[in-house]
Amino acid sequence: MADDLKKGLEGVLVAESGLSSIDGDAGRLIYRGYSIEDLARGTSYEEVLYLLWHGELPTADELESFAAALSEEREVHDDVLDAMERLAAADERPMAALRTAVSMFSAYEPENDADPEDLEATMRKGRRITAKIPTALAAFERYRLGEEPVDPHPDLGLAANFLYMLTGEEPSDVHAETFDQALILHADHGLNASTFTSMVIGSTMADIYSAVTGGISALSGPLHGGANQDVMEVLMEIDESNLDPLDWVEQATDEGRRIPGFGHRVYNVKDPRAKILQERSKELAESGNSKWYDITTTIEEYLSQEKGLAEKGIAPNVDFYSGSVYYQLGIPIDMYTPIFAMSRAGGWVGHVLEYQEDNRLIRPLSRYTGPEDQEFVPVEER
Ligand code: CMC
């Protein structure tokens, strides 16, 4: 048995992938060879989905029919809407509601009987999931507010349509583009915990609904997708404390608190996605309230320089600026992680498709540390 235990699988190579690559020292992220900066500035989330799933950027015609297929599949079954209403009434957390919604989508999947090895069918199912997640999430939010859901708007792209379904009002171009960029930035990121979870499930040839539901579950934790919400909560805590942000951070770090939105298993420098979101946060701040942007940049500078975190390779990750961006877009704080899931679903589907093409069951080992040769005593004698 191999004896080199790698806790947290740190540094362990388990698969080959052509979807995305991270250079953690250079702070570079690419999807299928294209820099995240070029994709964020020049494409839409739909284009990125096509790129991740098909391996190349679509032509204009390909994009048109792909986006139309996604748009046509946005509606969710009434039973799913009813479930969202009940879960909202039960005060369920949005990530758990989303997990339930995706699990339920499968009941109305027209190709449920497809051969698990039919990857074209898996891709169509993945497209349906990706198309429906925004609708279920927006409905859940509307029910929480005591409002009826808003039907999807067929003429709006996936990002703009989600903002529309949240409020019933078409978003401004700036808001729609900013949100679209945020979705692009979160779509894929190598073998992160949720993607790996989806792949493990996919490697058993379980269906894509199971894989995406598993991805959502893994993403919900505060060490992964939950950090974007934590960042905004910390910013609000600082604001409400009436302390100078630097005094608050000093006190928090003295108490040994980790600052959410800082640190990453793979990056040793600032996450390139954080840089792009910082620009967006700044732009939104210039035309609105600059408070949140100001607090984040002040904290970043202080932690990076004066507290020496930059030297230790602990720098802002994608979540550090996404919180203030979403806040300025008017998105409720506990929807930040579900939005991450909404985007990352594209990556999970892409990785499962890629892995199943040349599938091998994922089944690692653990080193047994329990007792050996215990003498068995029947229950009535214990
Ligand atoms: N604030 C202060 N110190 C930190 C932080 C932080 N946010 N993150 C890591 N460190 C320190 C940590 O105390 C440790 O120091 P030492 O070696 O002196 O004990 C060192 O950095 C290594 O930490 P680790 O926990 O062993 O590193 P990891 O690779 O296991 O953890 C992480 C990565 C993301 C879990 C961690 O940085 C963290 O908890 N960050 C805060 C939560 C967060 O922002 N998560 C979002 C991650 S990015 C989005 C995503 O991929 O989902």
TrEMBL record:
Enzyme category, top tier: transferase
E.C. number: 2.3.3.16
InterPro entries: 2-MeCitrate/Citrate_synth_II, Cit_synth_Halo_CitZ, Citrate_synth-like_lrg_a-sub, Citrate_synth-like_sm_a-sub, Citrate_synthase, Citrate_synthase_bac-typ, Citrate_synthase_sf
Gene3D superfamilies with a match to the protein in the record: Citrate Synthase, domain 1, Cytochrome P450-Terp, domain 2
Family: Belongs to the citrate synthase family.
NCBIfam families to which the protein is assigned, alphabetical: Cit_synth_Halo_CitZ, cit_synth_II
Name used for this protein in its record: Citrate synthase
GO terms (BP aspect): carbohydrate metabolic process; tricarboxylic acid cycle
Pathway(s) this gene product operates in, as recorded in its UniProt entry: Carbohydrate metabolism; tricarboxylic acid cycle
GO cellular component term, pick one: cytosol
Pfam families tied to this protein: Citrate_synt
Keywords linked to the UniProt accession: Transferase, Tricarboxylic acid cycle
GO MF annotations in UniProt: citrate synthase activity
Organism annotation: Haloterrigena salina JCM 13891
Location of the active site: H264, D319
Catalytic reaction annotation: oxaloacetate + acetyl-CoA + H2O = citrate + CoA + H(+)
